[in-house]
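User: Need the bound-state model for FE2/S2 (inorganic) cluster:
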Amino acid sequence: MNIHSPLDPVAELQATAALPFGEARAMPKSVYTSPAFAEREIERIFRREWICVGRASSLKEPGDYIATEIGGEPVMVLRDRDGTLRAQSNVCRHRMSVLLEGRGNVSRITCPYHGWTYNLDGRLRGAPYMEGNAAFDRKDLCLPQVRCADWLGWILVTLSEDAPDPHAHLAEAAAEIAPYGMERYHEEFREDFVWNTNWKVLAENFMESYHLPVCHAGTIGGLSDIEDSVFPEGRPAYNIHSIMKDPSFTLSVAHPSNTRLEGDWRLKTVLLTVYPSLMITLTPGYFWYLALQPVDPGHVRVRFGGGLAPEFVDDPEGPVHFQALKQLLAEVNVEDKGCTERVYRGICAGMSTPGPLSPMERPLYDFTRYIAGKVA
Ligand code: FES
Ligand SMILES: [Fe+2]
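Assistant: Bound-state model below.
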C-alpha cells in the first residue's frame, strides 16, 4: 500500500495527529478497522512496550502463576521459590505445546502433552524416554526468559530487549500519584472478558470523563463533577486527568485514618493511562483498572480488577462497602460496554466520519499522537 495514499491508515493517522489541539478530531476509522493496522500495532506496540498482566499481589505464594499472551506470544508470569516475579515463555521445548492455562499454583510446570517437566525457573527437569536421542541435552532446553517488572504493584511484561526500565520510564507518573501510595492498595477482585469493540475505543472511553454525565447517568454520573476536571498535557508514556468526588461517596474519599493525603487530595480521583493499555482509576479509598489486549480489530480482551486502599482493608466496614462498590462498578462496566460497542458499530458504518473532540477529551488527542508515533 502506498504510504501517501489517503486510504493508508498510517498516513491518515499522521494527518490527524498533526492537527493542533484546538482542532483535534477523533482518529480515522481505518485505524480501528484495518486488519493490517491491527497487525502493525501488535508488532510496534504490543510486542515492544510494557504490557500489564495484573497485580503483583495476586501472585503471593511460590508457584502462583498467570498464563497470558503478550502480542500473540504465550507467556507465563509466576512467583519463583525465592520470591521474585518471573516471566518466561509458556511453550514447551519438545513439540511446542502451550504449557499452563489460566491461573493457579504449581510446584513444577508439567507439559500436558508428553509430560516434560520444568522447574519454576524454566530449567528442564524431567523428560521421559529421551535417553536414546544423542541430540537431547537438558541444559539446552530451558524456557526462554521474558523481562518482567513490578511497578507500584503492577506486573509489567515486555518482549522487548530494549524497552526502557519502567521505573525510569514511568518515574514522572509515579511522582504524580505518589501521595496515594498505590503500591499498597489491595486487589479484591479480577475478571477477564472479551468485548466487541476495538481496544482503542475502550482505552479512549476510559481516558475521558466527558461521557460520565450521559453514558453513566444511571450510576456514577451524578457523583463526579467533570467541570472541576483538570486535563494536563499528556506525557510520552502516559496521560492523566483528575476529577473531584462527592464526599457522600464514602469509599472514594480518604478514610479518617488516612494521614498520607492532605487537602484536595482527600477528595481527588485520578485517571491514569499507562500506554499502551493499562488504565487505572485511583481514588483515596479504592482503585479499579482495565488492562487491554487486542484480539483483532473488532475484539478486545479485558482484564478488569480493583480493590481497596489499606485503611479500608483494615476497616471492618471497608470490605462491606466494597461489595456495594463492586456491584456499582459492574453496572458502570455494562454502561461502558454498551457505549464502546456502539461506537465500534458506528465506526464500521459507511456514512460515519470522525468528528471534532471536546477540550475535555484532551487525553484522546495525546493518545492519538502516541499511537501515531509508534506505528510510524
Ligand atoms: S510437547 Fe511438551 S512434552 Fe511434548
Ligand atoms: Fe465510562
